[in-house]
Amino acid sequence: MSIDPIFMERALQLAKNGLGVTAPNPMVGAVIVQGNRIIGEGYTSAYGGPHAEVNAINSVTDKSLLSKSTLYVTLEPCSHYGKTPPCADLIVKHKIPNVVIGTVDPHDKVKGKGVARLKESGCNVTVGILEDACREHHKRFMTFHQKQRPYIILKWAETKDGFMAPLASKRNGKTEPYWISNHYSRQLVHKWRSEEQAILVGTNTVTEDNPKLNVREWFGKSPIRVILDRNLRIQGEYHIFDQKVKTIIFTQIEDTAQWKKGVDYEVVDFSVNLPEQICQVLYKHNITSVLIEGGSQTLTSFISADLWDETRIFNGPNTFEKGLKAPKIMGKNPCFLNIDTDILNIYRND
């Protein structure tokens, strides 16, 4: 029985440490083994810092062992200059004789070139160990480079009778969230926010809930805020204008005199293929993943365009009887989790 999957599993465990901080770079894990013993480990640093292979090599105390070792890495080592030098060249420099790779990098600047560089140097290269697991782990990076759009997660909460918001009369005139899910579910959402590069909502969500769209109930980096505001109806002291987090507003208003300082604006045509245009702009901004939190019209537009990868729906125990109906969606491989009084439904669009 091959021991390669055991060490690749460890590399995947390490790679998860980069979730939420490495984007738009992939969150890679690397393990260096000599004589069936791990002598070095590493994962990708926050964006702009060293890659997993660099950190793993640097962690090895006795560098003479590298020339007799095997490097396990979840994604093909890069072969081009970016913010850091090519990892493939570093592997060659240290004369690591064996490299085991989870999956090939889909980036046009790599895409087999890293493997080729290693083989040309005489390195023994194996590709495809725990490949499905590695591709699943790198799903954001894969989607971004293979589909030229971010990995899209739709999220909402709905009542037992299928509503995601109550009638206005039930809000008592307050501009704040009307909670359907419990505290534990809301804390989980903040964890999700820390894991994705951007969060997106529509105009009504801002004017009715005045959300901060940041990370408060979890430790981590707040995502880029993306707001859809066709006619720039959001005026006043809303949290999205606090300039604490980068904010991008999609609008059809070209008059820059109406644009607020400290906010990025993108002018698009709201009358045709809006989800596709949003994806194109986010791709241009190097955003590899986005969590879409509402409202109903925004969520439905992405569902109708079949532009989504995951849906995460909280079902609360309460009822509204009247209000804003939640979107309808069909997905594959459903997963159901109990979170105290809530049920979390997760679907994939494979």
TrEMBL record:
Active site: E53
Domain CMP/dCMP-type deaminase: residue ranges: 2-126
Binding site for substrate: R193, L213, R216, E293
CC cofactor note: Binds 1 zinc ion.
One example of a Gene Ontology biological process annotation: riboflavin biosynthetic process
InterPro entries per record: APOBEC/CMP_deaminase_Zn-bd, CMP_dCMP_dom, Cytidine_deaminase-like, DHFR-like_dom_sf, Eubact_RibD, RibDG_C, Riboflavin_Biosynth_HTPR
A single GO molecular function term of this UniProt record: transferase activity
Catalytic reaction annotation: 2,5-diamino-6-hydroxy-4-(5-phosphoribosylamino)-pyrimidine + H2O + H(+) = 5-amino-6-(5-phospho-D-ribosylamino)uracil + NH4(+); 5-amino-6-(5-phospho-D-ribitylamino)uracil + NADP(+) = 5-amino-6-(5-phospho-D-ribosylamino)uracil + NADPH + H(+)
Lineage top rank: taxon: Bacteria
Xref: CDD domains: Riboflavin_deaminase-reductase
Pathway(s) where this gene product acts: Cofactor biosynthesis; riboflavin biosynthesis; 5-amino-6-(D-ribitylamino)uracil from GTP: step 3/4; Cofactor biosynthesis; riboflavin biosynthesis; 5-amino-6-(D-ribitylamino)uracil from GTP: step 2/4
Needed co-factor(s): Zn(2+)
E.C. numbers: 3.5.4.26, 1.1.1.193
Binding site for Zn(2+): H51, C78, C87
Keywords, comma-separated and alphabetical: Hydrolase, Metal-binding, Multifunctional enzyme, NADP, Oxidoreductase, Riboflavin biosynthesis, Transferase, Zinc
Pfam family, one: RibD_C
Binding site for NADP(+): A157, W179, T205, D209, G295, S296, Q297, T298, L299, T300, S301
PANTHER family found in the cross-reference section: 2,5-DIAMINO-6-RIBOSYLAMINO-4(3H)-PYRIMIDINONE 5'-PHOSPHATE REDUCTASE (PTHR38011:SF7), DIHYDROFOLATE REDUCTASE FAMILY PROTEIN (AFU_ORTHOLOGUE AFUA_8G06820) (PTHR38011)
The protein's role, per its UniProt record: Converts 2,5-diamino-6-(ribosylamino)-4(3h)-pyrimidinone 5'-phosphate into 5-amino-6-(ribosylamino)-2,4(1h,3h)-pyrimidinedione 5'-phosphate.
Homology family: In the C-terminal section; belongs to the HTP reductase family.
Stated name of the protein: Riboflavin biosynthesis protein RibD
Species for this entry: Maribacter polysiphoniae
